[in-house]
Amino acid sequence: MKWTHFCLPLLLVLLSPALTGQQTGDGKLSTYEMIPGQSLTSRTGKVVTYHLAVSDTTVNFTGNPTPALATNGSIPAPTLAFTEGDSARIYVTNYTGGTVSFHWHGLLLPNEFDGVPLLNTELIQPGATYVAAFPIIQHGTYWYHSHTEFQEQKGMYGPIVIQPKAGIPTKEKVVVLSDFTEQNPHEVLRQIKRHTDWYAIKRTAVQSYGGALATGNLGKQIWLEWNRMPSMDLADVYYNAFLANGKIADAYPTLTAGETIRLRVINGSASSHFWLQFAGGKMTVVSADGQEVAPVEVDKLLIATAETYDIEVTLPTDGRYEFRATSWDRYKHTSVWLGQGAEHAAPTLPKVDYFALTKEMKDMMAAMPDMQMGKAPNDIPEPRVYPIGEAPSNEDIQMESMMQMGMEMGMDHSKMNHDMPDMKHDTVPEPKMDHDMPGMDHSKMDHGKMNHDMPGMKHDTVPEPKMDHDMPGMDHSKMDHSKMNHDMPGMKSDSTPAGKTISAKEMDGKTMDTGMQMGSNAPMGVMLTGYYELKEANPNETIFDYNMLRSEQPTVLKEDRPVRVVHLYLGGNMLRYVWMINNQPLSAADKIMIEKGENVRFVFHNTTMMSHPMHLHGHFFRVVNNQGDHAPLKHTVNVAPMETTIIEFAATEDKDWFFHCHLLYHMMSGMARIIGYEGSSDLLIKDKVDYDNFAMDDLKYFGMASVSALSNGTWADLAYFNLNKEFSLEGETDYDGNFEVEGKAMRYLDPRQFFSAYVGAEIDGEREMDAETGKLGTETKVLALAGVRYFLPMMIWSDLRVDHRGRLELQLEREDIPLTTRWRASAMGRYNFMEQRAEYAFGTSYQVGQYWAVVGIYDSDYGLGGGIKFIW
Ligand SMILES: [Cu+2]
């Protein structure tokens, strides 16, 4: 074993508490510099060896035996315990029939051991043993999981605990949270892609018209559908159970009154966030993603998928106190019981009020009228590298992003409270944001009376080269140009009608009906998570948000470097379950290239209704919050719906690293990228075929079918589809021998997947009496078809087609109108322009089980009928 030390000048070490180097047991060198307080270079030389054996197993958590994957016979996989400074040597033997992998989530290690198969680590073949050998250069709570297909959902996840050299003073317990489904995860993804409502029904998350009417929320329901958005939801998948350390309820009895325990909480779920609560009082967050933070006391904390938090709780009296993790959609929970004796359960969280979430979203969208749900703007800024010292500030980027979404912050200065904690009127020149605020009417502004004491906002007097002189929509007549700098791209300074604007006061207050707050001191990462609802239910409680995370030590990046700014729009189509970044799924996208030696900023814009816990392999990044130089370091950040979140990191590595949403089904549906280091990136791809295979997960095809066997005929619908293509076969027949069959090959053409085009053929058969012979026969005709489909407000699919004889036909169809939780209605109308003939149908169905419903239909051609529909 060879040791190599990599020393930076002493000055650098003094300037930042950063670290300098590492080597592996095998002599690899790497130069992380962003883990304050952790001794990356000081090695003990102790080699800690683990042998992990992965095998097929059967589990039974809920009464139904379910195939799963065990590691050393266990789910979760065993805890890998180290002390900072050790060297890890982990042997993984594959006793399953397919390939497996393990990724060491949150560990800083040489690229080749990162464990993403086909990208940087070999596949572990059946019967083979693989060894990962790397130095342990950090401490904290981490985890490991498979990075192959759906193996993580099937049980391949486990904790990694690295003790600091000094140890920790309290008792401790690992709590790995996970979600369990009795279904094969392939089937889970197929179900959500084909968009049945079954999981929503099981999770009591259906928002029906009946329910909306009964609760006075009809307007919200219509608003949502008018905007072509599916019902509000928090999660995608129905889970049969949630587990703590592989159990529905785990326990730690040996804790007595007054004793404190550190819970190392790991969200090892495939696609669940959890609300954490402790029955015995406040929880103290002491570490996030393995990095120490200034302790913060909270009553509730939402832990996103793939995050870890160390949480200290103290037993108030002798007794059994519940530490509870409730799934983010709040229909089930798992627990760890601490202590022994009288039972003290944590309070059950109220059911999600989905209409309240709809309202929150409506308010937000009213504030950002230019935002298009699910889609990046047409002019996504190209990644840009700014020379040293010339990059815009993060505040500028945030503000600019809000402007781009059309946020109008018309300020009513008569009401302006000039003690706005986020605004600064400093007179010190600073290359940041200039004088004005959007929507500011300077004619009303009396600068003489202003209290220039607004921390956070920069009113500098130094012109800055990066922004344009003119503001579109600015009413220059009202402005005193002598007093200002004019550079705010995209800002709207015109006076906007009352009601559409958010005043500056509101920016840092909570003045919206939903309790939604805005501004830099508003809670971060909580939009549409249920935060505001829970806050309203218990106003005195402290609910965790990212602005409470303060790194114990400064994390500011070195400034003597170029800065690369990369804008990433998280988008997709909820109905088709396609997830994208900058309008492209992984399979269609280039790598995001960065260069060693620069600082990299990712600016996330979440244009979807869902949270996306974004995880970057091999690096820690600063999550830019309101803690300034002490912004926390994380490896996973939950980007909440419609929020703009900025992360930044020093590009210190080489080769290729995976970067993706850690909701497994989002990742598998396209929300991922490869981050490549310029110069060393392609070297890793030994085989182009492997590489293509790696990036092809989101191109996989799924099947779906439905057959309605009714009294007046049989309807059948088959489709084979992937992210942008669909091959379908539809048929209907009555019991007199009349039939219609239609085959189509279709492709979606726009990023939001509202528009598609197809070609196909139709075969019609009609039973007719032959006039001469008097015999019954079938007359068939075959038509070639071409058409386009467009998704209209109120979730109506329009379909305009022409056949080879020039016959033009328009069809409008709305399926699955939720009348109640399980009762649906549908309507279809078709008009043939040549024959001037209309056809229509009304249907209704009641969803009895996952795969079947009772159906009634009236069709203008087929008449009235009823029966059963099988849904696959
Ligand atoms: Cu996601």
What is the tally of beta strands? 46
The CATH architecture term of the domain at 702-871 is: Beta Barrel
Number of helical regions:
11
Biggest sheet details: 12 strands, antiparallel, barrel
- Summarize the amount of helix as a percent range: under 10%
Distance between the termini: 57 Å
Walk across the major sheet and give the strand order. 35-36-37-38-39-40-41-42-43-44-45-46
Q: What small molecules accompany the polymer chains?
A: copper (II) ion
By CATH, the topology of the domain at 702-871 is Porin
CATH class of the domain at 702-871, please? Mainly Beta
Give the mean pLDDT. Answer: 83
Low-confidence stretches: 1-31, 409-511
Query: Which structural category do the helix and sheet elements fall into?
Result: mainly beta
Radius of gyration: 29 Å
Shape descriptor: globular
Beta-strand fraction estimate: 35-45%
